[in-house]
């Protein structure tokens, strides 16, 4: 199971979705009323909320359990997959919560049923290392949904919902065909489903808490500052989250791949250390470049939103850098250490509420960005602490130096960000932060056509 090629495939489909979604909303903003755009945004919000609340077996647990089962040669892997698939069907009746919302959303109930079910299909295929199949399904769904949605701008929200449902149906049917070819059929094992649900409860509650906390600053912005500033902050937060969204797509390949190799006897700390060291270099550089270029993009294409330039810089640095430390949580999942996530989520929610109440009334959307940055810092620091304590990531001189080096990304808040981009690789080379073992891991999994990446790491490694 190759984590590098798998991550590249998820990165591509995530980028494709981000680009097409951005194009659709720009198109809708030009040809449709703000009311229509707001209703589409509500559809997406409910999509995210239903995925969090109705997925009783979190995707990380599915990825970990199947990857580990496959790696350890467990003969029950297909039965495990079939039971997880059934749990996706069991969530269907709960989508009727949509009836609590305005009537124009009722037509979307079949879409949410299919959405939750095909998410389980994707989790299963990812856990089995079928990265090509699952990303082909994602790509078809993305193109179908956002491509046909442009017609919905002219014909109305009902047709847009029908187009989304059509895309979900195509993807679901495709997923069923792939799963059947792999010999996976429905298998109802209540004891197994119950075990997976209870095992994943910390991650489940963590997801709900994070979802609620993630909307807290936006609710306070609209309540205290009004819809005008909410519109500015929403766009700023959307752009500021793009780098971490792209990095977050790596989770879908890293968790099943690391679990697979853990099942084959590779220590969790060894894998966690290599990923943390390499991801830190990539993430820090991405934060610097994003913070330097992002405000230029904002003022060039959205000049009316220029007041959000500084908050955007803060979000691009904080969200991206802290994601590097939070990524240590991938290997807590690999080692089946789920309990810390509940503590992390509760601390994150409390921090978000406290700093939002303190900063937004005084500093406006700048305060909202600072509150988000404070929350991200608290969550990522606590996640890294647990990862070090439970040996999911090593706590040697190298990892501590990387943590100490992270403030260099604050240059992204100034005109001197190119200096940080040039200095960072030199420091990694001089301080020996890229190890020979990291280079060999990348060499092992890199396809022949991409061996240039190994050459770059060879330059940065001084061992």
Average predicted confidence as pLDDT? 85
Number of helices: 21
Radius of gyration: 22 Å
**Share of residues in helices:** over 70%
Mind summarizing the main beta sheet? Answer: none
Strand content: under 5%
Order of helices and strands: HHHHHHHHHHHHHHHHHHHHH
Number of domains: 2
> Low-confidence segments, ≥5 residues, pLDDT <50?
none
- Principal-axis shape: globular
Describe the structure in your own words:
It contains 21 helices and no strands. It has helices at residues 3-31, 34-54, 59-71, 77-90, 109-127, 131-155, 157-181, 190-199, 201-224, 227-240, 242-248, 251-263, 268-301, 309-326, 329-334, 339-363, 365-389, 397-405, 417-431, 436-445, 452-460. The longest helix has 34 residues, at 268-301. Helix 5 (109-127) runs parallel beside helix 7 and helix 9 (201-224) packs antiparallel against helix 17. By secondary structure, the chain is mainly α. It has two domains: 1-199, no CATH class; 202-431, no CATH class. The two termini are 28 Å apart.
Concise synopsis of the structure shown:
By secondary structure, this protein is an all-alpha fold. 79% of the residues lie in helices and 0% in strands.
Secondary structure elements and their pairing?
Elements: H1 3-31, H2 34-54, H3 59-71, H4 77-90, H5 109-127, H6 131-155, H7 157-181, H8 190-199, H9 201-224, H10 227-240, H11 242-248, H12 251-263, H13 268-301, H14 309-326, H15 329-334, H16 339-363, H17 365-389, H18 397-405, H19 417-431, H20 436-445, H21 452-460
Helix pairs in contact: 1-6, 1-11, 1-12, 2-5, 2-9, 3-4, 3-5, 3-12, 4-5, 5-6, 5-7, 6-7, 9-10, 9-16, 9-17, 10-14, 11-14, 13-14, 13-19, 14-17, 16-17, 20-21
């Amino acid at each position: 199971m190759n984590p590098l090629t798998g991550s590249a495939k998820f990165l591509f489909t995530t980028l494709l979705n981000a680009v097409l979604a951005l194009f659709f909303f720009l198109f809708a903003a030009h040809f449709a009323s703000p009311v229509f755009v707001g209703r589409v945004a509500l559809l997406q919000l409910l999509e995210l909320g239903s995925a969090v609340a109705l997925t009783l077996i979190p995707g990380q647990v599915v990825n970990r359990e199947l990857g580990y089962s496959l790696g350890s040669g467990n003969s029950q892997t297909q039965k495990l997959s079939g039971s997880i698939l059934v749990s996706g069907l069991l969530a269907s009746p709960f989508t009727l919560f949509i009836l609590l919302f305005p009537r124009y959303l009722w037509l979307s109930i079949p879409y949410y049923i299919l959405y939750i079910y095909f998410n389980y299909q994707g989790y299963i295929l990812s856990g089995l290392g079928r990265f090509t199949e699952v990303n082909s399904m994602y790509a078809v769904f993305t193109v179908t949904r956002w491509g046909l949605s442009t017609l919905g701008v002219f014909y109305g929200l009902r047709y847009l919902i029908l187009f989304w449902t059509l895309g979900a149906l195509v993807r679901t049917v495709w997923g069923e065909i792939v799963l059947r070819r792999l010999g996976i059929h429905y298998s109802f094992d209540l004891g197994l489903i119950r075990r997976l649900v209870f095992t994943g409860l910390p991650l489940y509650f963590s997801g709900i808490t994070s979802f609620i906390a993630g909307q807290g600053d936006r609710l306070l912005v609209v309540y205290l500052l009004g819809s005008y500033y909410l519109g500015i902050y929403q766009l700023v937060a959307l752009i500021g989250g793009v780098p971490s969204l792209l990095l977050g797509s790596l989770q879908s390949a890293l968790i099943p791949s690391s679990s697979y190799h853990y099942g084959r006897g590779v220590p969790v700390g060894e894998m966690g250390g290599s990923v943390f060291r390499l991801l830190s270099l990539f993430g820090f550089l991405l934060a610097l470049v994003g913070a330097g270029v992002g405000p230029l993009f904002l003022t060039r294409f959205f000049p009316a939103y220029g007041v959000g330039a500084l908050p955007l810089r803060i979000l691009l640095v904080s969200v991206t850098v802290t994601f590097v430390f939070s990524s240590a949580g991938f290997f807590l999942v690999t080692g089946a250490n789920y309990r810390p996530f509940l503590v992390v989520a509760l601390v994150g929610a409390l921090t978000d509420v406290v700093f939002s109440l303190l900063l937004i009334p005084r500093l406006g959307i700048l305060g909202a960005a600072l509150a988000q940055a404070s929350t991200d810092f608290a969550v990522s620091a606590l996640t890294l602490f647990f990862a070090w304590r439970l040996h999911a990531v090593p706590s040697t001189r190298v990892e501590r130096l990387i943590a100490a080096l992270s403030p260099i990304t604050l240059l992204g808040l100034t005109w001197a960000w190119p200096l940080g981009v040039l200095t960072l690789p030199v420091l990694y080379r001089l301080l020996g932060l890229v190890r020979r073992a990291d280079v060999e891991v990348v060499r092992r999994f890199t396809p022949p056509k991409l061996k240039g990446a190994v050459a770059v790491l060879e330059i940065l490694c001084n061992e």
